[in-house]
Amino acid sequence: MVREKKAKARKKISYSKWGYIFLIPFFATYLVFSFIPLISTFYNSMFENYRSGLTQIGPNFVGFENYITIFQSDLLKYLGNTVILWIIGFIPQIIISLILAVWFADFRMRMRGSTFFKTIIYLPNVIMAASFAMLFFALFSDDGPMNNLIIRMGLSDSPIRFLTTVWGTRGLIGFMNFMMWFGNTTILLMAAILGVDSALFEAAAIDGAKSFQIFTKITMPTIKPIFIYVLITSLIGGLQMFDVPQVLTNGKGTPDRASMTLIMFLNNHLFSKNYGMAGALSVILFIITAALSLVVFFILTGAGKQKGGSR
């Protein structure tokens, strides 16, 4: 009887509380470093607060006036620049990363030295973006190595001014973002493919399925959750693009502000100590990021169709 009572007492012990206890550090960190600053930013965005020379103006409550001023500025132009720069870098990034991930994870190819190649393609990811931008600035300057090579090969009689044309500058920024992040994307997609049961690929190959059919019918549907994660995190990172165009254009977004991003626009307000406008722009950027991420998520997952179909 005593043993039965002890066994019943052990069964009644709940370990679910430990899950909540282990979550406390995360929520405490999120509360202190993310949630409270977010609320504070929204609160400060409702005030006029800036410096004019040595004179401090404000803080004076102005309501949504800062938001109206932001929307009357070139916000849409800078949003368009940011999206274009992200697309230029992301499209080749996802294509090359998918190809490399499939190659490295293909059990039939058995590539030799795959570990070495994985390390090489990931190396640009550990280089600071500012250093990367300075390197490209030196390489593609008017008297840089690239122009010297082009002239010696007879492809042009005079130096090509890459950084003075809109698409030349955008192309370099997109190419740098591609170089820095395609290795990380490849590793994530490869890990997702390796998590798929190899019996599915073997069965498809035995049934005579071609490589493209295996990719479209097995690989992509099974790694869809990771693909959505990569797309959304890349979109968020693209909207927060700052260091590469900032260093490459010296913070001016030249030429004709065609490479000025939203975070560079925000940085200009912070540099001028216009905290009210900077707060308003931060809130707008947060809303844009959340909205686009939700749109991408619902489009790719078809959550809306599934919900509608269930009715």
From TrEMBL:
Q: Which PROSITE patterns match?
A: ABC_TM1
Please give the biological process terms from Gene Ontology that the record holds: transmembrane transport
Keywords from the named record: Cell membrane, Membrane, Transmembrane, Transmembrane helix, Transport
* Gene Ontology cellular-component terms listed: plasma membrane
All copies of domain ABC transmembrane type-1, residue ranges? 79-296
Stated membrane topology is: Multi-pass membrane protein
For this protein, the parts annotated as crossing the membrane are 20-43, 83-107, 119-140, 178-201, 222-242, 275-301
Q: Which InterPro entries match?
A: ABC_transporter_permease, MetI-like, MetI-like_sf
Q: Where in the cell is it found?
A: Cell membrane
The record ties this protein, via CDD domains, to: TM_PBP2 (cd06261)
Q: Which PANTHER family match?
A: ABC TRANSPORTER PERMEASE PROTEIN, INNER MEMBRANE ABC TRANSPORTER PERMEASE PROTEIN YCJO
Which family is this sequence assigned to?
Belongs to the binding-protein-dependent transport system permease family.
What protein is this chain from? Lactose ABC transporter permease
Q: What is the lineage of its organism?
A: Bacteria, Bacillati, Bacillota, Clostridia, Lachnospirales
Name of the encoding gene: lacF2_2
